[in-house]
Each structure stands twice: as C-alpha cells, then as structure tokens.
C-alpha cells in the first residue's frame, strides 16, 4: 500500500490563514512560535553540561601557587574531566600544555549548539573530534535552510558515534522531513526528536534498527501508525517511549519485550492497545484524548486495551467520559452505574482526572475503581468544567459501597486541585467512610483559595472540620491539607520525572 503523506497543516501559509480566521494578525506569529518552543523545551532533557557552571582551581600550597597538580593525573581521569565541560571549554584545554593537547579529541564530548555563538563552529568541532560524543544537542537551527550541513552532521555522528542525541528543527516548515540517515546512528541510547515529519519507514532497508536505544522522545513529530510499529519492532532494548504533542492522531499497537514506560502528553489518541509488553510498568497520559468535548452525551473516543502486561503498576490519568477500557475481546463500557468486571489486577497506583461538576462523568468513578481491585494509591485530579451538568449528592456515594480496592487496599489518596465543591467533598467523605486500610489523605487546594481575602485560612479549617466529623473506617488515617504551587490549568507535567524509575510514584512529582 502506498504511503499517504500527512497533510501540511502547519506550514507558514496555513498558520497565517488560521490566525487570520481567528482575527489575529501576522504579528502574532513570533509569540506563537516562542510559546510552542517553550512547551517543547519542557519535554526535552537538560544537557549534561552547562555554560553557566563555575570552574575554580585553587592550590593550597602557599609557596607555590602555580603548581599544576591536575596534569599529573592519569589520562583516563583527565578525559573524564574534559568530557564534563562545555565543548568550547573542552577544546580550550588543548592550550594548557602538551599533555592536555590531544585529550579533548579523545574524550567523549557534550556538544550543545546553544553554547556556541556560530553554527559553523559546531560543524568544525564535529569534524575535528574523533568521537564518540556522549551527548549532542542540536536545537537552534532551521534545518530546511541548511540541508548540506544537516546531512553532514548526521553522517559524522553515524561514523563517530553518539550516545545521546537531541535533534530539533526550528520553523518553518514545522513538518520538515527528518532524514532517514537518523537510523544510521547505531550507537545512540537516548534520542529526542522535535518538529519533524518522520521518514517513510516502509522504504528503509530490512536491517534498519536502533540496537542500543533505551529512551525515545518524539515531540511535534508527524507520524503514521506504521511508523510507531516500526520503531517498537526495530528498537529491541527500548525502555521508555514518550510522545509529546504529536502532529496527527495516535493509534498504538504495542508489542515490545523491554518497554517499561509509555507516556502520551497532549496527544489526540484514538487507540492504545497493549498487546504483549511483559516489562511494562507505567502508562502515563496527560491531556491525551481525542478532540471530542468532555460532554456526557458524546460518544467516548479513546480506547485503551489491555493484553499481556503483568507488571503494569502505574496508570494515569484516565478520564471518565473519554476513555474506554478493554481487556481481551471485552469492552468495558463506562456506565453511570458501577458494574464492569475486574481487568488489571496488577495496577497499584491509579490516577483519575474528573470533572466533578459534570454529574454523569463523576458517576463513572466507581466503575473505574472496580476495574482495578488492588490499588494502593489513588490520585484524583479535579478539573473545572466550562459547562456544569449537575452535581452528585452524598446519597449517591452512600449507595456506591462495596468497591474492593476502596474497602481493602487503598492506603493513600491524593486529591489534586480541590476547590471546595460539594461533589468533591462528598467524594472525600465516601473514601474516609469506606477505606478500611487508608493511612493518609492529602488534599491539595487550588492555588489562591486558602489565602483568598474572602476565605482566608478558613477554607482549610472548614475542610478539616468537615472531614474530621466523618465516621472513618480507619480512625488512624492522617489528614493533610496543602495549597497548590501552580495555578489551575497551568503547565505542570514533568516528562523527565515521569519516566524516571527512581521515583516510585511519579504522579506525586509530575503534577
């Protein structure tokens, strides 16, 4: 089947036309681009070296302050020192002495083009250094304007080797074709691509692969479903896949022996099918749903199908009213009456994003909780609705008892963005009245409510009074109230924390 190229909806002409239809002039292009790349920077990993770092050498010998003690160190240690310097400083070490002169060419360098005043200097460094490079960050150039240099950079990195590569195109066009040479970087372990159109993977040679790739980030990248399947099949040791604000819809069919973390951030997701992923530990969704509004009378648009994922421990944020859950050939319809069967017993940490002011959406919470019987930590993110549609009463929650995870397993509840709505309070009371092993309930207020002139600290005191009056299933449960450090609706997700396995519960720190 012939590959259908994605439409160029993000050319400069298309952007100006779209802005004009919204009553905005061309003068808004630059602010928009700045905003877009500001968001993209939050997705990219930080370079391992900084041009702002302060390096000081001090000799404590009062009689001979000029003594060179560093040069007496073994070459291996000196190369390690050089490799931790910005590339300009690393090259300058060659003038220190004859001992230092060859070191920078054999030390694995970190080349960050943001640290260089001129783009051509980066090309000269790539040509002069024998490799390998521990890290190369190329994020400051419009690749469409420099096709010759683009080809040269990739050829040099393929020949000399690079472990971490961050490769971002500057507009315009936003969907400039990514050279297929990217697949020749056999040594790369960490790869982040931004603002590209993915190459035609069906035309690549049979042996094309990323044999050592552990972490892949795709931001503003136009791809087809077959491209995702190609990447997963040709990256045998891939552990982390992050898709960030993709250009187009996402349909993922995941078969991977080593994948541990999947992140979908601000994407239009149709389907995520976890077919056979024995090492998968976390699926993290943030504003990842289709374009349809969050309205209770709409068809649910995003389907998540669970196959073989025995180690899946963390799942969030699911959105009642948007996500359909499926196991095997059984679709778990999310009804307003709780009744679906158990589907993923391995999940210990669950995040739900809920519009408590939309009655039919809030009613789905028990259905979702019944799908995951062994949850130990529950994160609830309360969302403000533009179109409130009824509120749940305490009576509804009183009738929703008998949920296994609530009664027997949930030990901690974290309620993010609490605003004092009666439906939010009713849910918190329901948890306290039924959670027999609950040790801690943490409520994070929306920014400004605790310190507003009208409510002051009384909002926190009132909540504590309301919750303390509940007959708790576990009298030893500890109640903690905090205020949010970010405004409601503010950018808050931290992609790097979410994929960091040192954080046992990334939902604490990502939001």
Description of the structure:
The chain has a 14-stranded parallel beta sheet with strand order 1-2-3-4-5-6-8-10-12-15-16-17-18-19, covered by helices on one side. A five-stranded mixed beta sheet has the order 7-9-11-13-14. The protein has 511 residues and is an alpha/beta fold. It is built from 16 helices and 19 strands. Strand 5 (215-222), helix 8 (225-233) and strand 6 form a beta-alpha-beta unit. The chain has helices at residues 12-21, 29-43, 75-83, 87-92, 103-106, 119-128, 147-160, 225-233, 359-362, 365-371, 394-398, 404-408, 422-434, 458-468, 495-498, 506-510, and strands spanning 109-112, 133-138, 162-168, 190-197, 215-222, 240-244, 249-255, 261-265, 268-276, 282-286, 302-308, 314-318, 323-327, 330-332, 349-354, 377-382, 412-418, 440-445, 478-483. Helices cover 26% and strands 23% of the residues. The two termini are 43 Å apart.
Radius of gyration: 26 Å
Distance between the termini: 43 Å
Amount of beta strand: 15-25%
- Provide the spatial order of strands within the biggest beta sheet: 1-2-3-4-5-6-8-10-12-15-16-17-18-19
Overall strand count: 19
SSE layout and pairing:
Blueprint: H1 12-21, H2 29-43, H3 75-83, H4 87-92, H5 103-106, E1 109-112, H6 119-128, E2 133-138, H7 147-160, E3 162-168, E4 190-197, E5 215-222, H8 225-233, E6 240-244, E7 249-255, E8 261-265, E9 268-276, E10 282-286, E11 302-308, E12 314-318, E13 323-327, E14 330-332, E15 349-354, H9 359-362, H10 365-371, E16 377-382, H11 394-398, H12 404-408, E17 412-418, H13 422-434, E18 440-445, H14 458-468, E19 478-483, H15 495-498, H16 506-510
């Amino acid at each position: 089947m012939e590959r259908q190229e994605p439409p160029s909806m993000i050319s400069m002409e298309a952007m100006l036309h779209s802005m004009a239809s919204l009553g905005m002039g061309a003068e808004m292009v630059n602010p928009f681009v700045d905003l877009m790349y500001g968001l993209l920077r939050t997705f990219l990993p930080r370079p391992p070296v900084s041009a702002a770092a302060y390096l000081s050498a001090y000799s404590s010998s009062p009689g001979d302050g000029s003594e060179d003690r560093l040069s007496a160190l073994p070459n291996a240690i000196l190369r390690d020192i050089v490799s931790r310097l910005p590339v300009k400083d690393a090259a300058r070490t060659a003038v220190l002495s004859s001992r230092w002169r060859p070191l920078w060419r054999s030390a694995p360098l970190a080349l960050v083009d943001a640290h260089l005043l001129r783009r051509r200097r980066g090309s000269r460094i790539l040509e002069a250094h024998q490799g390998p490079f521990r890290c190369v960050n190329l994020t400051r150039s419009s690749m469409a304007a420099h096709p010759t240099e683009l080809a040269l950079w990739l050829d040099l990195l393929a020949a000399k080797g690079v472990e971490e590569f961050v490769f971002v195109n500057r507009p315009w066009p936003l969907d400039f074709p990514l050279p297929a040479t990217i697949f020749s970087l056999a040594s790369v372990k960490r790869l982040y691509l931004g603002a590209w159109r993915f190459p035609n993977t069906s035309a690549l040679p049979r042996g094309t692969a990323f044999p050592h790739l552990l972490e892949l980030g795709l931001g503003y990248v136009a791809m087809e479903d077959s491209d995702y399947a190609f990447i997963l099949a040709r990256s045998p040791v891939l552990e982390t896949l992050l898709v960030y604000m993709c250009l187009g819809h996402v349909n993922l069919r995941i078969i991977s022996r080593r994948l541990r973390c999947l992140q979908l951030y601000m994407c239009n997701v149709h389907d995520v099918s976890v077919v056979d992923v024995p090492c998968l530990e976390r699926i993290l969704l943030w504003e990842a749903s289709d374009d349809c509004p969050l309205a209770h009378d709409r068809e649910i648009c995003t389907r998540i199908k669970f196959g073989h994922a025995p180690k899946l421990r963390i799942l969030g944020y699911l959105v009642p009213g948007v996500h359909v859950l499926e196991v095997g050939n059984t679709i778990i319809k999310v009804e307003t009456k709780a009744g679906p069967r158990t589907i993923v017993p391995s999940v210990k940490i669950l995040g739900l994003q809920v519009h408590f002011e939309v009655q039919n959406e809030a009613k789905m919470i028990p259905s979702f909780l019944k799908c995951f019987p062994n949850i130990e930590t529950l994160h609830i993110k309360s969302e403000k609705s533009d179109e409130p549609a009824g509120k749940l009463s305490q009576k509804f929650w009183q009738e929703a008892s008998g949920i296994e995870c609530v009664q027997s397993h949930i030990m901690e509840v974290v309620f993010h963005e609490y605003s004092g709505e009666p439906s939010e309070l009713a849910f918190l009371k329901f948890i306290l009245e039924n959670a027999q092993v609950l040790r801690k309930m943490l409520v994070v207020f929306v920014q400004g409510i605790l310190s507003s002139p009208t409510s002051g600290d009384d909002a926190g005191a009132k909540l504590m009074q309301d919750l303390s009056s509940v007959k708790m299933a576990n009298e030893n449960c500890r109640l903690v109230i905090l205020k949010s450090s970010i405004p409601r609706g503010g950018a808050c997700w931290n992609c790097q924390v979410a994929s960091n396995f040192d954080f046992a519960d990334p939902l604490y720190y990502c939001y």
